[in-house]
Amino acid sequence: MAKKKLWLLWRQLILELSGNPCLIIYIKLQYYTSAIALACLIQRYMRHFTLLSDRYNRLTTRFPTD
After folding, report:
1. Backbone angles phi and psi of 27, in degrees to 5
2. Cα separations (Å) of 29 from 32, 35, 49, 51, 54?
3. Which of 4, 12, 23, 29 could serve as 34's disulfide partner, Cβ 3.0–4.6 Å?
4. 21-38: buried (b, 16+ CB within 10 Å) or exposed (e) per residue?
5. pLDDT tens track, the chain, 66 positions
6. Is there a contact between 32 and 5 (Cβ–Cβ < 8 Å)?
7. Dihedrals φ, ψ of 44, to 5°?
8. In angstroms, what CA-CA distances link 47 with 4, 50, 53, 62?
């Protein structure tokens, strides 16, 4: 039961963060066959958050708080 609840929370997080409908394909895989898909998702989101972080850093350096 706890594993299923964790999986549902993980899926909800992915859906909320995802602007890319292709990622839903990964979510529809069964839990026990989705280890590779989850690794792919983590890799994609690490790239996504890196891009967001870079964008945020660019904005904060463009507009100094002095």
Report:
1. -65, -30
2. 8, 10, 24, 27, 32
3. 29
4. eebeebbeeeeeebeebb
5. 567 777 777 777 666 666 655 555 555 555 545 566 666 677 777 766 666 667 666 666 655 555
6. no
7. -65, -45
8. 27, 5, 10, 22
